[in-house]
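Subject: two folds for Thursday's group meeting

Dear M.,

Sorry for the delay on this. The cluster queue was jammed most of the week, so I only got both jobs back this morning. I'm pasting them in the order they finished. Each block is the input sequence followed by the predicted structure tokens. Could you check whether the formatting survives your parser before we put anything on slides? The first protein is the one we discussed after the seminar.
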Amino acid sequence: MTIHVDYLVLGLGGMGSSALYHLARRGLNVLGIEQFGVAHDRGSSHGETRIIRKAYFEHPNYIPLLERAYELWRELEQASGKLLFNPCGLMVAGPPDGQVIRGVYEAARLYDVAVEKVSSEDAVERFPGFQIPHDFEVTYESEAGLLYVEECVRTHIECAIEQGAQVCLDEKIHSVSIHDDSIEVTTDVQEYSASAVIVTAGAWSSTYLQDLNLPLEVVRKLLFWNPVKQPVYDLDAGRGGFFFDMPYGEFYGFPSLDGETLKLAEHTGGETVVDPGNLNRDLLETDMHSISRFISEVMSELESMPTRHGTCMYTRTPDGHFIIDRHALNHRVVYGAGFSGHGFKFASVIGEILADLVTQGTTKHPINFLSASRFSSA
């Protein structure tokens, strides 16, 4: 027997859980399908924490979306009573003429984001445990902070269910058939049909949107939790997150949440993943090269070897920007893909945007720069 609903959401990670919530809170008949469990560690929305910031050096067009994302994260906290966002601040360091530092200042100038330039002398006092290269410029964004990633996903799903959404977990999708008047989805458990569908499948996006030939590349990324030698990085001591634009890569991390370990990772690099369902999650010797160099040069109070690691995936686009759009051939299908390793902070507003697009065909949010048409052949 086929289950009929008005809206389906395929994939309930960061973006899909939010889309499910925003459809449910509008009183709509929606069902979400997830091939794993709630807040699982098989995709891209896990690992305890994610940075959230407004001085967006990637592109200033993201900042209006971030303003709304901040509002929605706060609203979700109030609705759920859960702690999702910690405004612990963010230090960004890099060459003064580098893309990162120039982008931070451009964002601050265009959108009046509060960004503080920190002198070399002050940086030593304010950011103990960091050996910042002498020729680097340092900025500090007080409104930045961290999101508790699994709790965000879990809360979106729980609140969606409270609003009447249905959720089907541990169901692998075998086929998605797009017709003029409906969408049919078959899993290894059940068959579904809906008037419209939102695809938020992360590293599996190309599988469900094959006819669009989206230019997506999936890469394997490592997260590290390394022991701290001294309590100089502790959240309880008022420390925040950090982002370094080094000559050999971009590195980011978080304050120590437990006083024992600190999470950090390299944003750049990553080997191509052919099959997202068969990701190598072992720690390889080659995974350690650049992160070990960064620790030895910049973080003297951090042990060089991690006590644990995690593995996730970035789904990258050629220009590093998201794709949020309606299907070119059938507007019953709306999708968000290619979040390129910097999308989670936007999840609250991306869900709202996808709900707008699938119900109204448009959104008030400025997302033209994220349209798939930018990759179309001339």
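Second protein, same layout:
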Amino acid sequence: MPRIPAKKTSEAGLFLKLVYRIAGRRFGAVPEPMAVVAHHPALLRTSVVHELLAERASKKIPANVRELAVYRVATRIGCSWCVDFGTMLQKHDGLDIERLKQIDAYATSPAFSHQERLALAYADAMSSDRVTVTDEQVAELEREFGRDGVLELTYQIALENSRARMNSALGIADQGFTSGDACRVPLP
């Protein structure tokens, strides 16, 4: 149970009810982080717009690379909600979620490509207590993905660090997106 309870639909105004309805259709349930932030309407609007714009802008690197890097951050920070939701998103994108079980061994596992290993190592370097990214690491990422790709990857990893740390601080735990218990979202 989160440290701040989710705002109920019965407490919601017209705008929030619309947001909840759209989120429910898209994800099968209202994401709990959204329902918690709903207590602060200006932050909710900011968050929704930011997430939609970031999603729309992130098209430079392959989805599998981006989603794995974001997932890695969630596992490093220990955000069970982010792991749950991220797994569901990968499943719906048609990505192989079975290999997520090997994420801790990505450096040696044949389940991950060279590009994915680079992105996962970068996610690790950006998500430790102290950022340990090196010039060489960024140069290799730029050779692989281009400058726009590095910026996109950096942005997405930083964004997931923010999400995961906020959810963890507020005690927001997994919601059952991958189990189907809370969200029966049909595969596209």
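Two things I noticed about the second structure. The two ends are 30 Å apart (CA to CA). The first helix runs from residue 14 to 27.

Cheers,
T.
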